[in-house]
Design goal:
It is built from 19 helices and 16 strands. With 460 residues, it is α/β, with parallel strands linked by helices.
Length: 460
């Protein structure tokens, strides 16, 4: 019988995963945390190991290092409620089979377990390179970005990164470069939307002295500068139809001809393009070349807007607090108050994660912490709320703006507010809400686009 080791210091999650596997016919050994898991790995053989990442005394990545010292190391699946692009990259790069963000659907767990236990064909790559840090979160949509970035990074194909303004497209591009085949090469970003049409060709292809008025010396273009590395074409959807033809030619034959030059030069550079526009719609409208679209989109990565992954907001706020505290040498700001988190959850975030970072930085500069909801309200651009409009810290109610939201959205925001108040402790959140923990898990899974609230089963 297949033996699976489940390692997690959280009893509820450990038991839920173990019981689910046992009901599916697997033999399961339980380990309460890192030390017990390490002992189990050394004393007995296993066909698969499923482990939490963050545990007292050591991490799942430490266990992975132990597993890799074995003569015949079993595959490993890591779980975490504190996901980041760097953690996913480290795990995938070090050979972990898969990386799951809590809460996850138990059917997905069983699917990945079955895949991990299926014999791999000879020559099938087992390791994936991964992306850089600074993108933080554990929502399934952002974990999908971690995985996609990790898998395509070492492959020499153009990548098109899609997403609204402020979602982190350049961070993904830098991750693709860092974990690509030539991380030591240059990374050259070009903001196509910020360059006038008359200068785009010179900026990308370069020019020779005297090629046009004010061309007083030779200039290497961005494509030539990126030779041996990566060129990042941000807002590529804004380039003119005329320049689209010239960019297509470079993508087809890898050569550039500076303005005023008689000869072409060969350039070997990975192309990563990004846009907030719907390129397929532009193709249908006839304003963007279809052949150029397919050249750029050798592989597509879509970044979710912040409003679709509000469960990551508390982690993002903590990340920005640490970053700006160090960067600006500010005093320790302390944790955000529940009232502040409620206001942040209620904001629509049209500028996405970039806007959130700006709001956190400005609030820290103005008030020194994220504990004053009136100060935050001023930064967000609205009138400060009066004291009697704000609940006392620890109450199970929170302000929501704007008013008269759909009931389902109100519930979603309230769930995340309570979870943020408990530091992600679902058992305590369920107690405050007056519901069972498995009911809370179902509701959270529903907010992530999973099953409806009355679905059977549960998730950790």
């Amino acid at each position: 019988m297949t033996r699976i080791l489940v390692v997690d210091d959280d009893l509820a999650i450990r038991e839920m995963v173990a019981l689910t596997l046992e009901k599916s016919g697997y033999r399961v050994e339980r380990a309460e945390g890192y030390a017990a898991g390490r002992s189990a790995i050394r004393e007995r053989s296993h066909d698969l190991i499923i482990s939490d990442i963050y545990m007292p005394g050591g991490t799942g990545l430490d266990l992975l290092a132990e597993v890799r010292t074995l003569t015949d190391p079993p595959p490993m699946i890591l779980m975490t409620a504190k996901g980041s692009i760097e953690t996913a990259a480290s795990a995938l790069q070090d050979g972990v089979f898969d990386y799951l963000a809590k809460p996850f659907d138990l059917d997905l767990l069983l699917e990945r377990v079955q895949a991990a236990l299926t014999p791999r064909g000879a020559g099938t790559p087992h390791q994936d390179d991964g992306p850089a840090s600074l993108i933080v979160g554990s929502h399934p949509s952002i974990v999908a970005v971690y995985k996609a970035t990790s898998r395509v990074a070492p492959l020499q194909v153009p990548v098109l990164v899609l997403g609204e303004t402020g979602t982190g497209k350049e961070l993904v591009a830098r991750a693709l470069h860092r974990f690509g085949g030539h991380p030591e090469g240059p990374f050259i970003p070009v903001h196509c939307g910020a360059i006038p049409d008359t200068l785009v060709e010179s900026e990308l292809f370069g020019h020779k002295r005297g090629a046009f008025t004010d061309a007083h010396q030779d200039r290497r273009g961005a494509l030539a500068q990126a030779h041996g590395g990566t060129v990042f074409l941000d807002e590529v959807g804004d380039i003119s139809p005329t320049f689209q033809v010239k960019l297509l030619r470079f993508l087809e034959d890898g050569t550039v001809q500076p303005l005023g030059a008689e000869k072409v030069e060969t350039v070997s550079a990975r192309v990563v393009a990004a846009t907030h526009r719907d390129l397929q719609a532009l193709v249908a409208a006839g304003t963007f070349r279809e052949d150029l679209y397919y050249r750029l989109a050798g592989f597509e990565i879509r970044l979710p807007p912040l409003r679709e992954r509000l469960s990551d907001l508390a982690a993002l706020v903590a990340h920005f607090q640490r970053h700006f505290q160090q960067q600006l040498q500010l005093p320790e700001p302390g944790d955000p108050s529940p009232e502040v988190l409620a206001l942040l959850l209620a904001h629509p975030w049209p500028g996405n994660v970039r806007e959130l970072g700006h709001v956190v930085r400005r609030t820290l500069i103005e008030s020194g912490s994220l504990q004053n909801p009136a100060a935050l309200q001023r930064v967000l651009g609205g009138a400060p709320l009066s004291g009697n409009e704000l609940p006392a810290s620890g109450q199970s109610t929170a302000p929501f703006a704007p008013p008269f939201l759909p009931l389902e959205e109100l519930e979603q925001r309230y769930l995340f507010t309570v979870l943020a108040h408990t530091g992600g402790n679902k058992t305590e959140a369920a107690r405050i809400l007056g519901i069972e923990r498995k009911t809370l898990a179902r509701k959270l899974r529903r907010t992530d686009g999973g099953e409806p609230d009355d679905a059977e089963g549960g998730a950790p």
